[in-house]
Specification:
The complex is a heterodimer of chains A (307) and B (433). Chain A is built from 11 helices and 9 strands. By secondary structure, chain A is an alpha/beta fold. Chain B folds into 2 domains: 105 residues, Urease, subunit C, domain 1 (Roll), CATH 2.30.40; 310 residues, Alpha-Beta Barrel (TIM Barrel). Classes of the chains: A alpha/beta (307), B alpha/beta (433).
């Protein structure tokens, strides 16, 4: 298998073929989630470690459940309750964990490139669960998987990604993944939140959201990452909501059957109005379920199968 | 004491006298006493066969971080000057961002005293412009100059404000010393990790716009014009900075500038290609192809006066960490000459004469130190280069304590063959003597 024993660090570095392999594997594994007994022996005897230097609800739980549903054992380390607090370096933490016999590390870290660094330290596979402002590849994969639940294909699909593009690893993984599969991607936010030369990645950039959203099949709203921002990127959450938040007026520019997505956690009433988040067009909770299936597929493809 | 030395049969490059000829050099009592064809010498004179080699005045690195006092775990005066000798440099000017900073004459004396004991090349301390490099009060630059400081800089940081810069440039007129500024508008570069552009967008690293340098270059040039002081701009890295300097020079403003070898050969693509190797993390950051092209042209046409290494050695503990947490800098003394020869001289972008001007004559003139020439009577600081010898960069063989180089494994043609300081051979054929 193409992914066996490999790292998953970014969608930029993942081929379209491998992306499709993950998606089709996830499609067949998703069925396990609806069984009364959610357990298959596929990864029995494998030990998976989640190493999180940043808070997480969805991603961490999703990876751990994906591992458990396939009978892998999991250990989880949080920076906030580990020897990281005593000043241990990432390199030392990682090497110590590896010495205990784990088979794969899933890491989230606030610094871009940390998973690349980790992969240079360890011989075992590394999965990036979000590194700084760089990428969150399994999020990109589960988003594409979710779009395919509602749309016949990705090629030619119009996807508008709204919000804090500059600080978003979700935006980058979606941009790399979606453009690789042939979608027409538009990104939009106040220009202070658009990174330089973003159009060179094959997307169109707009500083007025209604232009980006015009005729969109998918409207993807990003979380406003208040923790990553400096002071002068926008004046207030109130003004942000007023001009850039997704409300009914803005949504009216999209296609009638456009779906609404968000990676969570949401700032309700800031980047997305509550009634839109909870509307029938919102597939935000489907993304969460699909996240488990996609992560099962990734773990299976990297760790599973015969030796 | 047979302090006499004959360098035979080399291609002698003297940028001060514009000589490029095959000649012999006789050195007696630390000075060059004869420059002529076919010198025959007494039996007790040590002879270096320099046929097939280039002989030029000793290279002077006017931008080195020796780290002592305070950061001896990264580098010290002994290891840093050994690295310099290996790299073909006969002198280094060391920046004052030590701990304590070199902001008064006692630190200058201390550095010179240590250098006297254990340095194998000349060490020229650079004093800080402001006390504690804090950017508020001028440091005692007169006393530091008297103690042996050759220039003044708050390097590591820019001179804080236009007013502090104005006062420093005015005040230094009494002491005839150059002020070296590190041009950076830190409000634009704050928390930046690499060049601002497509690659920083792809990698999700905070960008440092070219304009953070160019705003400071423009400010510095304007204040130099206001004061008619003597200003040198450290490590310029952008096309925009080149054009500002060019414009300033055409107006007759007294400004000089330098470029590093790494800014002449690498672009921000290196950060991506190395998978975020922290050895690509440097301030100013590696820029783009367009900037590299412009810097190369400016070096050739005289807009850029000096090649300086900005040798910034770091301990592995300061580099083997996440990108944002890593220290800025490249250990550059032992790769500078091979890089310049392989990437600039041999491809014909600059010639040997220009290399000698920018790495020896111009630094000597800007700092007001001896060297830069091989004329009879001048101090015998000499660098001999083997232009054909190819070597692979291997940081494990560095004399510097800093193994932080992005050039590991690069095969480069052109190697320092001998480093001669005051008539004494301190390095010969890759070995320190």
């Amino acid at each position: 298998m193409a992914l066996k024993g490999k790292d998953l660090l970014s969608l930029q570095e993942l081929s379209q073929e491998d992306m499709e392999l993950v998606l089709s594997t996830a499609r067949s594994l998703k069925e396990i989630l609806s069984r009364p007994i959610k357990k298959v022996p596929t990864l029995r005897g494998k030990v998976i470690c989640t190493l999180f230097y940043e808070p997480s609800t969805r991603t961490r739980t999703s990876f751990e459940l994906a591992a458990k549903y396939m009978s892998a054992d999991t250990v989880s380390i949080s920076a906030s309750t580990s020897s990281v607090q005593k000043g241990e370096t990432l390199a030392d933490t990682a090497r110590n964990l590896a010495m205990m016999g784990i088979d794969l590390v899933i890491m989230r870290h606030s610094v871009s490139g940390s998973c690349h660094f980790l992969s240079q330290i360890l011989d075992i596979p590394v999965i990036n669960a979000g590194d700084g402002m760089h990428e969150h590849p399994t999020q990109g994969l589960l988003d594409i998987f979710t779009i395919l639940d509602y749309k016949p294909g990705i090629k030619g699909l119009k996807v508008a990604i709204l919000g804090d593009i500059a600080h978003s690893r979700v935006a980058r993984s979606n941009i790399f993944g979606l453009t690789k599969m042939g979608a027409e991607v538009a990104v939009s936010g106040p220009s202070t939140l658009l990174p330089p030369e973003i159009e060179a990645l094959g997307v169109k950039a707009f500083c007025r959201p209604e232009e980006a959203i015009e005729g969109a099949d998918v409207v993807y709203v990003l979380r406003l990452q208040l923790e990553r921002q400096s002071n002068s990127l926008f004046p207030s959450k109130r003004e942000y909501q007023d001009f850039f938040g997704l409300d009914h007026d803005l949504l009216s520019h999209a296609k009638e059957d456009a779906i609404i997505m968000h990676p969570g956690p949401m700032n309700r009433g800031v980047e997305i109005a509550t009634d839109i988040a909870d509307s029938p067009r919102s597939v935000i909770l489907d993304q969460v379920t699909n996240g488990v299936a996609v992560r099962m597929a990734v773990l299976y493809l990297i760790l599973g199968g015969r030796e | 004491m047979a302090n006499n030395l004959l360098i035979k049969g080399g291609r002698v490059i003297d940028p001060a006298a514009k000589i490029d000829e095959r000649m012999d050099l006789l050195i007696e009592e630390g000075r060059i006493t004869k420059l002529a064809e076919n010198i025959t010498a007494a039996d007790d004179v040590e002879v270096i066969d320099a046929s097939e080699k280039i002989v030029m005045p000793g290279l002077i690195d006017m931008h080195t971080h020796l780290r002592e006092p305070g950061y001896e775990y990264k580098e010290d005066i002994r290891s840093g000057t050994r690295a310099a000798a290996m790299g073909g440099f006969t002198a280094v000017a060391c920046m004052p961002n030590t701990n304590p900073p070199c902001d008064n004459d006692s630190v200058v004396f201390n550095i010179l005293e240590i250098a006297e004991k254990c340095a194998c090349v000349r060490v020229y301390p650079i004093g800080s412009v402001t006390k504690e490099r804090a950017g508020i009060n001028l440091s005692e630059m007169g006393e530091m100059k008297r103690a042996g400081a050759v220039a003044f800089s708050d390097d590591g940081s820019p001179v804080s404000t236009a007013e502090v810069l104005r006062c420093a440039l005015e005040y230094l007129k009494s002491f005839d010393a150059v002020l070296i500024d590190h041009p950076e508008d830190t409000s634009l570069s704050q928390n930046g990790q690499m060049n601002y552009g497509l690659i920083s967008t792809m990698l999700g690293l905070k960008g440092i716009p070219r304009e953070s340098e160019e705003i400071a270059v423009a400010r510095d040039i304007l204040v130099a014009n206001l004061t008619q002081g003597k200003l040198h701009l450290a490590h310029i890295s952008t096309k925009g900075s080149v054009s500002l300097v060019k414009q300033a020079k055409s107006k007759g403003i007294n400004v000089t500038c330098e470029v590093t070898p790494h800014h002449l050969v690498l672009t921000d693509e290196a950060v991506r290609q190395t998978g975020y190797s922290t050895n690509t993390k440097i301030n100013p950051p590696l820029r783009t192809e367009e900037d590299v092209e412009s810097l190369r042209r400016a070096l050739a046409d005289g807009t850029i006066d000096v090649i300086a290494t900005d040798h910034a050695p770091h301990h592995i503990d300061d580099k083997w960490v996440e990108y944002d947490y890593a220290a800025f800098g490249i250990s550059g003394l032992e790769t500078a000459v091979p890089l310049i020869i392989d990437k600039l001289v041999l491809p014909g972008i600059i010639d040997w004469m220009r290399m000698a001007e920018t790495m020896s004559l111009n630094p000597a003139r800007i700092l007001g130190v001896p060297g830069g020439t091989l004329q009879e009577g001048s101090v015998a600081d000499i660098t001999i280069i083997d232009p054909k010898r190819e070597r692979a960069v291997d940081p494990r063989t560095f004399e510097s304590k800093g193994q932080n180089t992005p050039f590991t494994g690069w095969r480069l043609t052109g190697t320092p063959y001998a480093t001669i300081v005051g008539g004494k051979t301190v390095m010969l054929d890759g070995r320190l003597l």
